[in-house]
Amino acid sequence: RKIAFYGEWIESHVLHFMFLHAPDFLGRHSIFDIAKENPQVVKDAVGLRKWGNRAIEIVGGRPVHPVGFRVGGLHRIIKKEELLPLLKNFNEVEKMARNLLEFVVNLPIPEIEYDLVLMSLKGDREYPILKGVVANNLGGEFPEDDLEKNITVEQKIYSNALHYRLKNGRPYITGPIARFNLNYDLLAPEVKDILEKAGYKAPLKNTYQSIVARAAETYHAVLEIKKLIESYSEPPQPYIEAEVRAGKGAAISEAPRGMLYHYYEVDENGRIVYANIIPPTTQNYAAMEEDIIKVQDLIVNAPREKAQRVVEMTIRNYDPCISCSVHAIKLKILRE
Q: Which of 13, 43, 192, 264 is the 20 to 30 A CA-CA neighbour of 50?
């Protein structure tokens, strides 16, 4: 399961930070403009994303909406020889991940600083992806099934999306920059070496630097998949049988975009009678809106085209999910 989840981080992160976000920092319209100037880094992005998709496919049955998982484990035992092709030419795979991180840390990223409230899972001995306690950079820490007790939700009259905040009313950010700042010491040494040579380490100071966190997590995920395959031994059975009974439970995993919360109540027949899913993009809405205010100095006196570009770039820092990101921004400017 971890191999597939890390594969998802890789394919999702690379798609966002190379194909959608990097052009913003270079003043380019698309990845095709970057390809003309630096074809190798684009080839690395395509190759690494393909490798991440392959990791998902081997474990989950297909790279998009995988079907191999079930309650208690997987539908079948994954044989070690099925995973070994991922290690073929691994030096080239690692080189691609390293090259992409080195490319990102050298981008002209805005150096403005502003207050960030961050929340993610916090790992004990490993960078969190499937388990941990929920922590924030204000000193708060609580079990993952207590998330709803520690946040508030509101419906805005101008939006169909729910907006989440901490109990103190402050918006919070979940996602790579939150994981990075709260778990920096748990990143692979190879990753931290590149970061620190370029002058980056926790805490990152603004959401534009989230692109650095994504590239760092991508390289880390590549190294973790290698370790998991090398240490893997086939289990006696693919899943643990779950007893059907009434109950309730909650858990959080770290999706590429941030904390993904699931809560379910089931009856004695195993039917779900209540469910609540809080995806990361929803948790980030309030922070996205506040970010536009934080960067107002870059917008207020700018020409319309530049102002719109800054707004779009600021929202793209959060890598909104597909259903959110396809909406166009209608910019209305009122000048005194």
A: 192
pLDDT (tens digit per residue) in 241-287: 989 999 999 999 999 999 999 999 999 999 999 999 999 999 999 99
* 247 contacts 126 by C-beta, under 8 angstroms: no
Query: Residue 121 in contact with residue 180, Cβ under 8 Å?
Result: no
Q: What percent of the chain has pLDDT over 90?
A: 82
In this structure, are strands 69-70 and 73-74 parallel, antiparallel, or unpaired?
A: antiparallel
Q: Is 169 left (phi over 0), alpha (psi -120 to 50) or beta?
A: left
Provide the phi-psi class of 312: left if phi over 0, else alpha when psi is between -120 and 50, else beta.
alpha
Q: How far apart are CA 90 and CA 31, in angstroms?
A: 25
3-state secondary structure (DSSP) of residue 247: strand
The H or E element containing residue 274 is strand 272-278
Q: What is the CA radius of gyration of the chain?
A: 21
Structure tokens at 41: 């880094």
Give residue 334's pLDDT band: very low, low, confident or very high (50, 70, 90).
Answer: low
| Matching residue, tokens 């990361």 | 280
- The distance in angstroms from the start CA to the end CA of the chain is 56
Nearest to 114 by CA among 216, 219, 205: 205
Output the six-digit token pair for 169. 């009313």
**pLDDT digit string (tens) for 204-245?**
999 999 999 999 999 999 999 999 999 999 999 999 998 999
Q: What is d(CA 127, CA 5) in angstroms, rounded to the nearest whole number?
A: 13
Cα 311 from Cα 299, distance rounded (Å): 8
Q: What are the φ/ψ torsions at residue 47 (nearest 5 degrees)?
A: -65, -40
Backbone torsions φ then ψ of 38, nearest 5 degrees: -145, 75
Over residues 77-102, the pLDDT tens digits come to 999 999 999 999 999 999 999 999 99
As a whole number of angstroms, the distance between CA 119 and CA 258 comes to 9
